[in-house]
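The pair is quoted verbatim as follows:
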Amino acid sequence: MPPRAIKVEEFLRNLPLFRDLSAEEVERIAASTSQVRMPTGSILFRKGDPCTGFHVIVYGQIKLAFGASDGSEKVVEILGPGQSFGEAVMFLDKPYVVFAESLADSLLLHVGKAVIFHELEHNQDFSRRMLGGLAQRLHRIVGDLEGYSLKSGTQRVIGYLLRDVVAGQTGRTLEVTLPATKSVIASRLSITREHFSRILHELSDAGLIKVSGRNIRFLDIARLRNHRG
């Protein structure tokens, strides 16, 4: 199947970051945007590579991680369609401190930093939205640090499984699909793959979830939220 074609201007215009820009502004940004197609397992950049802009995911999935000399890694983020990454490094004018790898066939847009800096100088609303996005990411990182420091492995896994479930939702047939392998998600949660699998098994034995491959069915969301392991 041939890669899906997209209209860059139309895609950018529908992103929250660019939604309120004028047609001329979006056109300028689109002119400095390139498409990057990545088969599964491709490396987009490595630690130490220069940053020339930021990326937005059109479709697919990207893993950001730290790598160690022994081949181990610590997953920082697992990102999907509509999400962006690299803005902070772009503003710092520093090389990347992580590597980026595709976990699925992906299409990214690379937005050049020169055109972003130009728009920031001339559009205060755009500047505020860019700062807001960075602030949300910082808030998420702080939340992760809190989880690693103060929460048990079981609490971290439950929080991750329920991350997209609306508060108060109690439907017994609600399901989620793990976005990546158990090894990748375990690294994201700072636990081992074996520990992650054991927690899923314990939650299943407790009648809280049912596991089928990557699909997780919630059997009792209220009890799951309050479970401490």
